[in-house]
Amino acid sequence: MAEQHYFSSNPVSEFTPQQVKVRLAGQDRTVVTAPGIFSPAGIDKGTTVLLAEVPPATGSRILDIGCGWGPITLTAALESPDSQVYAVDVNQRSMELTRMNAERLGATNVQVSLPEDVPTDVEFDLIWSNPPIRVGKDALHNIMRTWLPRLTVGGKAYLVVQKNLGSDSLQKWLVNELGSDYSVNRYATSKGFRILLVERMS
């Protein structure tokens, strides 16, 4: 039930942080998760595929859209300690857990906030995301419209989407929506997921 409501602002379940052992940025780590967020038991399959397939994080500013408890954010921050990593989520509990985990792992380059609290003039060299497909197509498209135009020229976004939850239709929509200033390609396919690569060309 928790996963069905991970995009709620304030989960109703009790906040009971629990330790979970995971592997991030090539090392075993202990993080905290809690009910009422996405994938509280550990790293979900889609994020696992994304982190296994993408090149190491680089860039001045990196964005994780829908951070959950922070596996993508933490990986980017640990791989690229000189980068500023922005983690956004609408779930207050997810945001708190990402802050807690960044502190636990010494990732001082992480900034966690609501999407609307990221200054509008901030652009990103890299976006990694396991976007919240289950929020519905309209909401998903709004998320894409909000963040992908904020790639720097030459910037890249890697998005992991389950094949049977509309990865191919999302790819077609992105091509039509973003236009000729961007390229949209299928970067990898693994374990029932596709990774879409969006690059800002000009």
3D structure, described in words:
This protein has 202 residues and is of the alpha/beta class. Helix content is 27%, strand content 31%. The chain contains five helices and nine strands, in the order E-E-H-E-H-E-H-E-E-H-E-H-E-E. The chain has helices at 45-53, 71-79, 92-104, 137-147, 167-178, and strands at 18-24, 27-33, 61-65, 84-88, 110-113, 124-129, 151-162, 182-190, 193-200. A seven-stranded mixed beta sheet has the order 5-4-3-6-7-9-8, with helices on both faces. A two-stranded antiparallel ribbon has the order 1-2. The radius of gyration is 16 Å and the shape is globular. It starts with 17 loop residues before the first strand and ends with a strand.
Layout of strands and helices, then pairs:
Layout lengths: L17 E7 L2 E7 L11 H9 L7 E5 L5 H9 L4 E5 L3 H13 L5 E4 L10 E6 L7 H11 L3 E12 L4 H12 L3 E9 L2 E8 L2
Parallel strand pairs: 3-4, 3-6, 4-5, 6-7
Antiparallel strand pairs: 1-2, 7-9, 8-9
Distance between the termini: 43 Å
Instruction: Work out the helix count.
Output: 5
The biggest beta sheet, please? Answer: 7 strands, mixed
Helix-strand sequence: EEHEHEHEEHEHEE
Dominant shape: globular
Strand content: 25-35%
Strand order of the largest sheet: 5-4-3-6-7-9-8
Give the low-pLDDT segments.
1-6
The amount of helix comes to 25-40%
Count the beta strands: 9
**How many whole angstroms does the radius of gyration measure?**
16 Å
Q: Give the structural class.
A: alpha/beta
